[in-house]
């Protein structure tokens, strides 16, 4: 039997995930459009029924979540370096992670994003996996130290680069998180066949204020 290369295996897995995601979105959108459409129609006929507003607003909220998660999942599956807007990436990534119950019920995100557009050039898949792994790590150690459950995110331009700053719950700084990040980077290199010195689409650093700073190249 011919052995499948790692690259081919990744492409097959990506295609399979894309097909599942595509089918899931279709299966959600079909009944959702009926709910939104009929509720809007009934609102015109029976404006005195306040519950119809709640049904319509709930339907629109579900649609917003589905579209945001769909966009972020598809962007992740592309697994290539591309230009994208960092602030919107953060919003979409938070929406996506809030659908993981372990994260949704364990952590609160607060974002202070730059006012201007920050266009960066990076790999959303690797960034997303790195970001998600850090979040899960923070949750585990925040629980063990009974720390607060809020993580603050900031973005801004810094010279020729952009910075995505994750401010950790205070007590988690007692953990040697820089050592963990090194191990995480090695694991990602092994799983996704990239070399840190040449292919890693960003660099990171830790400081004594409980912050992880992810530095990304601005769009050229």
Written overview of the protein:
With 220 residues, the protein is of the alpha+beta class. It folds into two domains: 1-77; 81-220, 2-Layer Sandwich (Heat Shock Protein 90), CATH 3.30.565. It has six helices and seven strands, in the order H-H-E-H-H-E-E-H-E-E-H-E-E. It has a five-stranded mixed sheet, covered by helices on one side. A hairpin with a 3-residue loop joins strand 6 (203-207) and strand 7. Helix 1 (6-45) packs antiparallel against helix 2, helix 2 (51-77) crosses helix 3 and helix 5 runs antiparallel to helix 6 (177-192). The chain is globular, with a radius of gyration of 20 Å. 17% of the residues are buried. The mean pLDDT is 79.
Concise overview:
By secondary structure, the protein is an alpha+beta fold.
Number of helices: 6
- Domain count: the total is 2
Shape: globular
Largest sheet, strands/sense/barrel: 5 strands, mixed
Mean pLDDT over the full residue set: 79
Q: What is the strand and helix layout of this fold?
A:
Elements: H1 6-45, H2 51-77, E1 82-85, H3 86-97, H4 101-104, E2 108-112, E3 119-122, H5 124-144, E4 150-158, E5 161-167, H6 177-192, E6 203-207, E7 211-217
Parallel strand pairs: 2-4
Antiparallel strand pairs: 1-3, 4-5, 5-7, 6-7
Helix pairs in contact: 1-2, 2-3, 5-6
């Amino acid at each position: 039997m011919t052995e499948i290369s790692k690259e081919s295996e990744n492409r097959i897995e990506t295609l399979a995930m894309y097909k599942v995601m595509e089918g899931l979105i279709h299966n959600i959108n079909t009944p959702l459009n009926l709910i939104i459409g009929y509720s809007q129609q009934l609102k015109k006929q029976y404006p005195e029924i306040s519950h119809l507003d709640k049904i319509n607003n709930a339907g629109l909220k579900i649609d917003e979540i589905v579209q945001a998660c769909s966009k972020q999942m598809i962007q992740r599956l592309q697994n290539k370096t591309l230009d994208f807007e960092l602030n919107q990436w953060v919003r979409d990534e938070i929406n996506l992670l809030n659908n993981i119950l372990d994260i949704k019920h364990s952590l609160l995100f607060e974002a202070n994003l730059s006012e201007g557009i920050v266009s960066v050039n990076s790999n959303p898949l690797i960034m997303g996996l790195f970001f998600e792994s850090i979040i899960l790590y923070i949750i585990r150690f925040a629980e063990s130290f009974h720390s607060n459950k809020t993580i603050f995110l900031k973005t801004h331009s810094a010279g020729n680069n952009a910075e995505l700053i994750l401010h950790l719950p205070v007590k988690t700084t007692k953990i040697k998180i820089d050592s963990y990040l090194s191990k995480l980077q090695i694991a990602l290199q092994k799983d996704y066949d990239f070399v840190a010195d040449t292919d890693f689409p960003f660099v990171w650093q830790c400081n004594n204020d409980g912050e992880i700073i992810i530095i990304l190249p601005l769009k050229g």
